[in-house]
Amino acid sequence: MKFVISVLSSSHAPSTRRALRFAQAVLAAGHEIIRVFFYQDGVLTASNNLVVAQDQQDIAQQWQAFIAENELDAVVCIAAALRRGVLDQTEAQRYGREAANLAEGYQLSGLGQLHDGLQQAERLISFGGQ
Amino acid sequence: MAKSVLLISRQAPWAGIAAAEALDIALAAGAFDLPLSILFMDDGVLQLLDQQQPLALQQKDLSANLQALPMFGIEQLYVAQHCLTERGLAESTLVMTAERLDDQQIQQLIREYDYVVTL
Amino acid sequence: MTTLHILNASPSTATQLKSCLRVVSIGDGIVLCGEAVQALRPGSAAAEQLLACQQTYHLYALQEDVQARAIDTTMVSVTLLDYPAFVALCVDYARVNSWT
User: Fold this and answer.
1) A109 annotated active-site
2) Could you read off the pLDDT of A22-75 as tens digits, one per residue?
3) Beta-strand pair A106-109/B77-80
């Protein structure tokens, strides 16, 4: 079955860890993930400026590794990302900001990509709140 | 046939950007001509109240986005009657025409869509 | 055409559980995860709410969240899920409504 997974909370929220464990189980069961869509505070997971204490799980790093290993389509909502300070090179230049911080493996795009994913998929599972 | 989405909007317009970001999902569906309806529930019903003055908090007027919905082809708006009632708003004027649904009608509504997005 | 509802907020601070129970259809499923599993504590106000209409829906909870919080579920009719079972459940129901 084809899934879209949306992540709506920051990387330290329990729901973002739950989303990752769920996504891993989706692939392990032989299902397909059409797209992972990061929206609202979920876009913060795609920042490469996160520094996590050594005795804590780095869920953002684990998400990034999972996306890379499985060559997943990881889309970060551009409007939600800009207002939370997550910028790629193009946007950093456009708005005259010093640094781009979108982690490798993620792409900024519009909400249309969420709807496009839903049209291709059969299930949407969202992980937000706590 | 395009797959349909029921967006359940549960956040007050006064709770930061969440209500506006939920509405953006609807506007994006409209821009791509995809079938989407909105159900306002819990504090989300407060988005529909008339005569609110977000400018007093230097806040953008969300009702402008709401009123743009029909232009984007989003015409099916619903509101949970019990959520209006328990907030003392049963008889209040709403900024948009929204069909008032009881619990059974909401149960039925959810079953009619391919996806439910609750924000 | 049943729906799987996923709840993740504490029943004492959020309206998720109360609102979900109003709109749950016969045959739907409810998965409790995160702080929502606090509703399984025997004798709590939330447990009473939850169990009052339990003939309507199937009740599930994420096992890791129950275990982490030391909640005794032996008195409650709830199916505990690991992640593979959680995924399978999302396939079984026609749609998933994540209450965030």
Assistant:
1) no
2) 999 999 999 999 999 999 999 999 999 999 999 999 999 999 999 999 999 999
3) unpaired
User: Does any CB of chain A come closer than 8 Å to the CB of residue B24?
Assistant: yes
C99 bridge partner residues: C7
* Contact across the interface for B3 and A124, Cβ inside 8 Å: no
Partners of A9 on chain C (C-beta within 8 Å) are 100
pTM metric for this prediction: 0.97
Pick the CATH number of C3-99 from 1.10.220.10, 1.25.40.10, 3.40.1260.10, 3.20.20.120: 3.40.1260.10
What is the bridge-based pairing of β-strands A123-127 and B5-9?
unpaired
Q: How many other C-beta atoms lie within 10 A of the C-beta of residue A55?
A: 5
Domain count for chain A? 1
- A110 touching chain B per CB within 8 A: yes
Question: Strands, DSSP E only, in A39-94?
Answer: 74-77
Judging by beta carbons within 10 Å of its beta carbon (0-12, 13-18, 19+), is residue A80 exposed, middle or buried? Answer: buried
Its domain, for residue B94, covers 5-118
Q: In this complex, which of C35, C84, C96 lies closest to A130 when CB atoms are compared? A: C35
Which CATH number does the domain housing residue A52 bear?
3.40.1260.10
Report yes or no for ipTM above 0.85: yes
Say which of C19, C24, C97 has its CB closest to residue B42: C19
